[in-house]
Amino acid sequence: MLDKLHDHDHDDDHDHDHDHDDHDHDHDHDHDHDDHDHAGRFGAVLRMALATLILGVAIAAACIVMVPAGEAVVITRFGNPVRVLTEPGLAWKLPLPVEATIPIDLRLRTTSTGLQDVGTRDGLRVLIQAYTAWQVPTDPAGITQFLRSVRNQPDEAARQLRSFTAAALHIVAANYSLSDLVNSDQSKVQLTAFEQSVHDQIAARVLAVYGIDIRQVGVERLTLPAETLAATVARMKAERETVAAEVTADGLRQAAAIRADADRDGREVVAKAQEKAAQTLADAEQQSAKIYASAYQSDPTLYTTLRSLDAVGKMVNKNTNMIMYTNAAPFNVLVTGPTAVTALAAPAAKATK
Known about the structure:
By secondary structure, the protein is an alpha+beta fold. Helices cover 64% and strands 16% of the residues. It is built from 9 helices and 9 strands. The chain has helices at residues 2-63, 140-150, 154-173, 178-181, 191-210, 226-298, 300-315, 332-336, 338-352; strands at residues 64-67, 71-77, 80-85, 89-92, 99-105, 109-112, 116-119, 125-135, 213-223. Strand 2 and strand 3 form a beta hairpin. Helix 7 (300-315) packs across helix 9 (338-352). The radius of gyration is 65 Å and the shape is rod-shaped. The chain starts with a helix and ends with a helix. The relative contact order is 0.06.
């Protein structure tokens, strides 16, 4: 009886313990399962949010348009231009394949025609090489025209522009003579007008057809063929000779005028000098006569002697040989001295009184 009771208690204790353990195991299993479901849902939401963010960034990047300085951007919708962006900065568009962008370079470019053999108005040949500075205009209409005409290919635009410029050189050169382009006188050279004429010849048409703005046309090189060079040298030589002849003639005219003025002034000076000399001589002779008269009145003998000696001095020099009577005047004074002169002069003095 006791053994049975003991066995019964043992079995109850065993069953109780087993049931408690099963309950704890089921509880732990349910708790772990809930945590796992919660973490899975959070990860899925996180992945979806990250994917949505990446997709949004990708869509935003596909919709952003960057317009650099010196460029324009044409936005096309299914291949047709719908907008032209010219202001540097950011803009928006619809993502591909709805809208796409085409960059257009707006920087200044140059192209050269190479040497062109053209004829001038006077029938001479000249070799001219011209350069053209051009760019795509900044207005949307010009940009669209450039895109449609040359498909945004600058090399093709430059090739077309060279063709237009070469043709304009032939047309414009026919309106100018060679001396207008090559001349030793810089004031007669008309290269600036020639360049402007070429510019005006092509600018409007190129802008309308190709959407190209011609900023400047200039003569880069100008040379002459052999026959034209010979004709040019001959013409320049003739021009120089003509100028030299004109200068020489003008110089001769001026020299003749100067000589005539000098001769006239010289004659006037000589006449005045002669007049003054005559007046001076007359005054001197008058004064001399007064002196002679005074001297004669003071001492007639001495006066007669001195006058005789003066007459002898004028008549005789070192090469003179004369044979004369010594008693003949005025040589008698050399022999007789002042006494004879006085004797001869006394009757003259009395007769004068």
